[in-house]
Design goal:
The chain is of the alpha+beta class. 29% of the residues lie in helices and 23% in strands.
């Protein structure tokens, strides 16, 4: 099997999506992918086309654009996009490209405007994307209605924002429904991003996700995180102890009485979307250095800081830890075959005052340390994968089942989307 992997990895024509699909179809479950899936520009381009241009992507929080005219911008592969709140509070997404000669429209990462105006020739658009003004030089027969901004599918659920560049995106409505219900107690429309961290990791985006999907490495690498985090997120985990199951049962009884959702829900192939609330270590209520709440003003309607960590996973690009006093949200943006941007946002009640209700260093200490440690891990992983000695290795079914699920989802989604396009 190992020799076969090496042969396929070296001979597979990277320009042919059909053959990539055929390889993934025969890839043995429980093994990492061949080297080119982590290193090659052609493979990366194909993944951007078949995954990041077609699947739903987490892109931010509604509280980041709280009022009419607020917008954020981001880059998905080669495509700049903007997300803006309109006249009646609607949130819309557009390709951030002027319909005149294609210039990038909104240049700031975040801001507030009355209209969307291209700085090149001042073509001006309403917040709903309709072209309002193109000057008098376009001629008397120019029809503005034909040159609205190109819209992008956009959904919000519980204060999270998602976009899909596909005209016919995958239906994940059941996940959006659950997300709305599980995030309701936090009232994210009335929250704020207290602080944001952006780091660029010299590693393939799949290695970043794989690292997140297991805690096999935690004992040796994350002392700060393990002050509060219990590794298991399922009482059916074969490693889970009776003590852990008893702790879960006691906390769930409290959450049930308080109307806080906690049951494990999952949707999609390879558990691509999943939500579960699990206790933190007994005696801790937040992912802080001492396990105490980082913000004295709890979120939304929450009265009890001891809500454990509600873990939200959305493939291909996001995960989250929601605690009673704050939420830590992670977003992954691929930049190249061996370059990935990881964005972390710490979210608190919008009425919380920095220096009074929370301290930035205390709020961010554990995950800043963990992010730095993870960056070193995945960059070293990438360096080893780059070697001609690298061969696909086996995952642990016990400790790395989350990684197996991710690779299964990746393989399934690539094959499905390639097949939908027909031969390339």
């Amino acid at each position: 099997m190992t020799d076969r992997h090496i042969k396929l990895d070296s001979l597979l024509p990277v320009s042919c999506s059909e053959q990539v699909s055929e390889y993934l179809n025969s890839h043995p479950v429980g093994f990492s992918l061949p080297r080119k899936f982590y290193t090659d520009q052609h493979y990366f381009d194909l993944e951007m086309e078949q995954i990041f241009q077609k699947e739903w992507l987490f892109v931010g929080l509604t509280c980041e654009i709280p009022a009419k005219g607020n917008f954020i911008t981001l880059q998905i592969g080669s495509s700049p996009i903007t997300i803006v709140r309109g006249d009646q509070g609607q949130i819309r997404a557009f390709h951030n490209v002027c319909r005149h000669r294609g210039s990038k429209l909104c240049l700031a990462k975040q801001g507030k405007v009355a209209k969307l105006v291209c700085s090149y020739h001042q073509w001006t658009y309403e917040l709903d994307g309709n072209l309002l003004y193109a000057g008098t030089n376009m001629g008397s027969d120019f029809d503005k209605s034909k040159f609205s901004l190109h819209p992008i599918n956009c959904r919000t659920a519980g204060g999270y924002m998602y976009v899909s560049l596909s005209d016919n995106p995958t239906n994940i409505d059941a996940y959006f429904d659950d997300l709305q219900r599980y995030l309701e107690p936090y009232d994210l429309d009335n929250a704020k991003v207290a602080v944001q961290s952006t780091i660029v990791e010299e590693a393939n985006w799949k290695l970043v996700i794989e690292n997140n999907r297991e805690c096999y490495h935690c004992d040796g690498s994350h002392p700060e995180l393990l002050t509060s985090l219990l590794e298991w997120d399922d009482t059916e985990d074969p490693r889970a102890s009776d003590e852990f199951r008893a702790l879960v049962a006691s906390k769930q009884a409290i959450w049930e009485a308080e109307g806080i959702p906690y049951k494990h829900v999952s949707h999609g192939h390879g558990l691509r979307n999943r939500i579960v609330r699990m206790p933190l270590k007994d005696g801790t209520v937040a992912m802080t250095q001492d396990g105490r709440a980082a913000c004295s003003k709890l979120m939304g309607r929450i009265k009890n800081p001891d809500l454990g960590s509600m873990r939200i996973l959305h493939l291909p690009n996001s995960w989250c830890h929601a605690q009673g006093d704050h939420i830590v949200v992670f977003e992954v943006r691929p930049l190249g075959p061996q370059l990935t941007e990881v964005i972390t946002k710490w979210v608190v009640n919008k009425e919380a005052v920095e220096g009074v209700d929370y301290n930035i260093d205390r709020l961010t200490y554990v995950w800043n340390a963990t992010n730095s440690q993870d960056r070193n891990l995945v960059e070293n992983n990438q360096r080893g994968v780059n070697s001609i000695a690298y061969q696909p290795g086996p995952y642990s079914e016990t400790y790395e089942f989350g990684v197996i699920n991710f690779i299964d989802w990746f393989s399934h989604s690539m094959q499905k989307n390639i097949a939908a396009n027909g031969p390339q």
